[in-house]
Amino acid sequence: NSRTISLLSQLEKINSDSVLGESDSARHVTSKILHLVQSQEKTRKEMTSKGSTGIEIILSTLEVKCLHFFVYGFIAVLHFVIMKCGGRRASVLVTKGGTQILLQLLLTASKDSPPNEELMVLLHTLLAKIGPKDRKIGVKARINGVLNISLNLVKHNLQNHRLVLPCLQVLRVYSTNSVNAVSLGKNGVVELMFKIIGPFSKRNTSLMKVALDTLAALLKSKTNARRAVDRGYVQALITIYVDWHRHDSRHRYMLIRKGVLQCIKSVTNIKLGRKAFIDANGMKILYNTSQECLAVRTLDPLVNTSSLIMRKCFPKNRLPLPTIKSAFHFQLPVIPASGPVAQLYNLPPDVDDVVDESDDNDDAETESEIETEIDDDKDQHFKNDDIETDINKLKPRQELGRSIEELKMYEQFFPELSENFQEWDLVSKEPKPFVPDANLSGPIVVPTASEE
């Protein structure tokens, strides 16, 4: 038996006690396990190996014993195990119910005044690590009422980058859920993100990258996108992108520049965002910056994202196009003096003649974004009702070009189609029915007169 197994057995015995009487021994076991996990890779692997109950014992301890030295010590143990052993260990923690326990601990720790900074950093770091492994973490966070805890920590600790960074990582995980994005947007998270992102600066680039990713996820909600447009943030995003484009001459911060483009891409999903983008001269700016990026192969993601934004925001026109917008000119043979066609031809070149009605019902559908989520299992198969399964309907209908009566005039040219050929029985001198040979394959060869 190893030292780790012995310590875990002692910890399990402590958990079985209804009252914690020997706090000194419990503190000793906690510190020993933490020391082994920090110093020995063998211990970390042993706790997360197949068949090991180490993670379960620690989680049950955190759930039962809510004393501070227990919480901080074992959160530190989980932090070292997950951060050092990779994503597979995070999946183990999720399957053991660790997400729910960590969220409950976060709610309990937030009630302290002031909250323990070290504990908050460890909790948020763990949640950010296991969040992508748990597809229901957004729902769990909302049910447990911890959405605004991370947001409030960022609001009151903007200068404390050590605490803000893991909190932003957790907010990024929460924002992938549309209902959470709307709820966070109502509490001012969009305005908060624009306080963090800013002009070119080599300081805290990792914080800038996480903030941009979080903002891009938040702006996918139409409610948050409209809020950003109303406050003039589209112009701010374009200005930030141009600033980074000018100063990043060595292209070391391509991911940050792409993050700004992702925010612009999200906000232009609505009609107001596209209009604000065009009014801010965004088409010309993205076109010019993309031309400058074409020579560098590593900047292809920036060119591709810029192209998607420009294609989305470019005014739409019907064919034929009589203006300079098209490389081809389709002239109608006859243009009436009045009517809708004449009106289209009389429009000035810069007018969008296709009415964009994509967001006309957004005001009525604002609250519909906050709806009950249906969490389907991964192995659930969805039936496509658009696929036709009736074979008779799939067969093309063959219609004759002429009637049967008209085709009878050709019978004399094709007697084999209408004559009843029968084989004569030489013994009975009577015709016998024709029975095709089942083994006969290939074309039937008719003997010539010489062969007969």
Automatic annotation (TrEMBL):
- Give the organism the record lists: Pheucticus melanocephalus (Black-headed grosbeak)
Give the matching InterPro entries.
ARM-like (IPR011989), ARM-type_fold (IPR016024)
GO molecular function terms noted in the UniProt entry: carboxypeptidase activity
Gene name tied to this protein:
Agtpbp1_0
Name the domain of life.
Eukaryota
Q: What is this protein called?
A: CBPC1 carboxypeptidase
Q: Which UniProt keywords apply?
A: Carboxypeptidase, Hydrolase, Protease
Write down the Pfam families for this protein, in alphabetical order. TPR_CCP1_N
Give a yes or no for keyword Zinc in this entry: no
UniProt region (Disordered), positions on chain: 432-452
Name residues in a coiled coil: none
